[in-house]
Amino acid sequence: MRITPIGPRRDNTRFSFGGDYQSVSGKQLCIACSPDGGHVYLGGQAGVWRSVDGGLHWDHAEWPQPPQDRPRPAGALPVTNVYDLWVHPDRPDVVLAATGRDFRRPEASGVYRSTDGGETWALVHQFRDGAGNPTIVSSFAGAPDNAELVFAGGSGGLAASEDGGRTWRAIVVAPAAAVHHVLVGASVGGARHVYASGSAFWHSADGGVTWRVDPGGPAIGAPTDGVGESSRATCLHPANPRIVYARRAVRVGDTNVEELLKGTFPVGDGPGSWTRLPNPPIGYAGTTASGASFVLVHRAPDGQLLFLVSDRRTTHLAIGEPNEAGDWARIDGDPVHVDPHGIAASRDLRRSTAPSMGRLFLISDGGAYVSADGARTWTQGLGLSTLGLVNAAVLSVAGRPQGICLQSGDNSGFYSRDGGTTWATQDYVGGDNDCTFADPRQPDRLVVFAPRAGNREIFLYTGPNGAVPDAARGTTQRHRVKGPPLEDGQDNALWNAVSGFYFAGYRPLVLTVAGEQPLPDGDFVVIWTQFAADRALLLRTTKLSALTASEDWVTTAVADGPGVKVFRQGPPLPVTVDVVQASGGHARPTFTAGESGGSRRAFRWRSGMAGWAPLVPSTGEGPRQAVRFFADPYRPELVYVLDTDHVWRTDDGGGHWVVDAGLERVLTLDGFSFSQRGSGVLLRDMAFDPRLDARFAAGPRGVFHTADGVGWRHLALSSALGAQVNGLFYDPGVTPCDRALYASTTARGLLRLHPLPPEWDTPQGSVNAATGHLTELRVHELHGGFGPPTDHLDAEVVVQLDAEPGKAFGFPLRTGHGEAQARGMLDLLRDVFRAGRRVRLEYVRTGCRTGTLIRVVEPG
Questions:
Q1: Is 36 a residue whose pLDDT tops 90?
Q2: Contact at 8 Å (CB) between 15 and 374?
Q3: Helix, strand, or coil (residue 535)
Q4: What backbone phi and psi angles, to 5 degrees, belong to 414?
Q5: Phi-psi category of 666—alpha, beta or left, where left has phi over 0 and alpha has psi -120 to 50?
Q6: Which of 49, 74, 606, 687 would bridge 730 by S-S if both were Cys, CB 3.0 to 4.6 A apart?
Q7: Per-position DSSP letters for 183-217, written without gaps between them
Q8: What does the pLDDT look like over 438-477, one tens digit per residue?
Q9: What does residue 144 show for φ and ψ, rounded to 5 degrees?
């Protein structure tokens, strides 16, 4: 199996907007570079990325998926959230990563060190809270006059290393102090100033031995994952270690107002004198405060001082300390995405007309950018596949290229009509886009949630004559479906066609099962919560393209029929129910509905039942809460429930429950626990095959599968990918060979997993070998063949091997040429099968899971 990123790139995407609005890369949180700007490291929510050519090209260290009995790959960075980086001034392959807030592995938060440019990592220090739990590491500061001296700040305090991060000693700034930002100056006259900001502002004039609270200094919070401060919210004057600059937001009425502060400290140990410097202008069209605050003061080789700040919207530069707002100039713009998060500069950066002006690096919601001309123009680096996805949908038509729709936070969405070879801006442009869905049996229809369009709309795309639709910007194949009317003109009527409910388990489509045809206009279900009536209605439509007005959702019909656009399914539900899934096809689907919060009850209903039957809590042994539930869309009796302490499964619609020990084991191995909540729940998504018993699951630890419903194995561990999986889309393919699984990630874009077990990953027609014990030997009538039409084996002798589960090998047993060889192979197979001895099968791969035997060998 191969794991392939298939998302958009700069060189294969047609954009409808400039790079300041849409990018093929996603949000990053921190950046650091070597003094010459040649080695650059980038951190965010997908571990650490690296560039060795000054930010023009990026790569991400990945590790081979470990054996099934290994919990994670050796040397991998186990925490994907990185808030700051430090690069050794003399050895650019030595780098430190400040990690934390990874809901998957909170106990692994700490300082990690790599000596090979990010290929392998070792935990070298942890901060701990009062209860002894590891906490976030927020920032680093290296001494400008000592390459080995580096400080680290975190929620648990301060630490220092005098050997380039190999070993650390804790520093007590104050009891229970949270240190989120740290600065260290050069030693002047034997005195080294160190500053720390977090729950308060502290100053040390003796290298961190003694500390005092500075009463006028700013308290600044920890680096943010979204809006707030970055790890570069403070900086030192490059020529005077007694001058500190800080960037933060303060609350003025109902508004956050950015302020730029300057603190000047005396030669000795005394309080600082703080003043406000003028802010850059704000209010540029199309910008909102969605980034992070930072400040960088850089001294060019010619002595020129460059002040660079973020206002959480855009980035500005002043030459010399600013005296008024007009001293600032905005330096970002196309192709730089708005909402900046971090900045770094090479030592030789300057703003001049010199042939060489060093390098300036800027990161934002759109990835990483580099300027080599003093921030006049920018280049976006290649290879940075870091889109944060909501989810994706895949449309497969036999003999035609696939359609792929992916929806991205921060960067709207993208659409491909050729299987990911090329991409274009998706038609719905919501900035933070929402969800997309498709029935694998109906690839000419695509549904996109568009909550920011009009009255919380749904966009339906339909292709002509069974073809994949065009869902790119400028399409003529879109139909807009308005949401239900608001109550009394107020936004107090809710329907769940929005991503928050998708993440809680809502799936809007009734999928087509084997033996039935898709409905011509689809099959869509939604919950309309009516607070005034204290109820929730489950609504269904098989005429989505006929809905043209909000009032179309207002219905008393309880069954489909002529003239009926929307009809109710089941009696009204409790007003707290907001998640629904359908199973069993169009004729008589079973609906499982539940609460995403509160008591987390779940109910089931199908046509003919008088009311909703309680499913969770179970009346006997079984789940007490449905933290998440997943009903097999093809087999209505099969339901999985994530409880607070177990993963439960029922094969009979809730009559009996069992703990799925195999799934529970792979989800919790390596320290992952049921205590995770919100976006970190232990089981985030599941997918099911309509023909086979194959099932797939995604959780914080990775992506897993079972071929028989019992034995679960990992396909992709998040620790090996540096990725966190949001959701799955399973494409069963036209034939079993075409099966593929698509994983949407928080910061690694869209990943395609193919071929899926038990398919081989060697090409058809290749010669291969496998050794093991026979589990089956059968001989049947001439020309009978073996296997389904889509994977047929022309053979009368068929064997299966324990080393290749799910595979079949065979050969014809006929008179004529080769008969003697065939008889000899059969005799040997009978002998080893009866005696339970090992055998080596040499074969030509002829199908997805079949091979023609050419030689049988008993190993010596």
A1: yes
A2: no
A3: strand
A4: -135, 155
A5: alpha
A6: 687
A7: EEPPPBTTB--EEEEESSEEEESSTTSS-EE-TTS
A8: 999 999 999 999 998 887 899 999 999 999 999 999 999 9
A9: -70, -15
Residue corresponding to tokens 């074969």: 843
User: What length is written for the chain?
Assistant: 860
DSSP at 572: P
Task: Give the contacts of 132 (CB within 8 A, at least 6 positions apart).
Answer: none
Query: Would the pLDDT of 493 be above 70?
Result: no
Pairwise CA distance, residues 679 & 676, whole Å: 8
> How many other CB atoms sit within 10 Å of the CB of residue 355?
5
285 vs 825 pLDDT, higher one: 825
Q: What angle do CA 104, 109, 115 make, to 5 degrees?
A: 115
> Three-state secondary structure along 688-715?
ECCCCCCEEEEECCEEEEECCCCCEEEE
Please report the pLDDT score of residue 679 as a whole number. 55
Percentage of the chain exceeding pLDDT 90: 77
Q: What's the token pair of residue 524?
A: 């869509």
Question: How many C-beta neighbours within 10 Å does residue 159 have?
Answer: 23
Q: Which residue has the higher pLDDT, 678 or 840?
A: 840
Q: What ranges make up the beta strands (E) of 493-575?
A: 493-495, 524-530, 535-541, 567-568
Strand partners, 344: 361
Torsions phi, psi of 670, nearest 5? Answer: 70, 30
Distance of CA 236 to the CA centre of its chain: 35
Q: Give the phi and the psi of residue 518 in degrees, each rounded to 5.
A: -60, 150
> pLDDT digits over 188-242, tens only?
988 899 999 999 999 999 999 999 999 999 999 999 988 999 999 999 999 999 9
Q: What are phi and psi of 578, to 5 degrees?
A: -140, 10
SS3 492: coil
CB 367 within 8 A of CB 386: yes
Chain Cα centroid distance, residue 584:
30
CA 713 to chain centre: 21
Closest CA to 58 of 338, 370, 411, 413: 370
Segment holding 720, helix H or strand E: helix 718-721
Please name which of 143, 244, 145 lies closest in space to residue 203, comparing C-alpha atoms: 244
Tens of pLDDT, residues 393-415: 999 998 889 999 999 988 899 99
CB atoms < 10 A from the CB of 178, how many? 25
What confidence score (pLDDT) does residue 288 get?
86
488, pLDDT greater than 70: no
> Which tokens belong to 154?
């975190």
Q: Which tens digits make up the pLDDT trace of 39-54? A: 999 999 999 999 999 9
Res 308 pLDDT > 80: yes
Alpha-carbon distance 570 to 577, whole Å? 13
Please state whether the peptide bond connecting residue 805 to the residue before it is cis, i.e. omega within 30 degrees of 0.
no
User: At 855, which helix (H) or strand (E)?
Assistant: strand 850-857
Find residue 341's DSSP bridge partners: none
